[in-house]
Structure prediction request, 119 residues.
Amino acid sequence: MENQPVLYGITTCDTVRKARRWLEGEGIAYRYHDLRKEGLSADDLAVWMRSVGWEALINRAGTTFRKLPDAEKQITNEAEALAVMLAHPTVIKRPILAQGERVTLGFKPLVYEALFAQG
Prediction:
């Protein structure tokens, strides 16, 4: 189903687990995409960057980012951000809920309720 939302994340992330439980509890059909196992396409990443901005996508507080070499942490533009996120998908803030061009970063039950109340 083309309009079916896709939830991007990693299975070990507590916030991703909460989002999945919420979607399932509300009976909302979605597809789960594991960033660690399935990777990430440059096309998806481009949509996300247009929607929320590359700065918001990078989880600078996360373990993956902190373990990067200092040279890779010095991200100053979209091209550098794209390269780092494609090379290290787990540096991306999670979860990402994508439905077409609509992209929601993170999980807050009230935000999800509003999204799905709109249809």
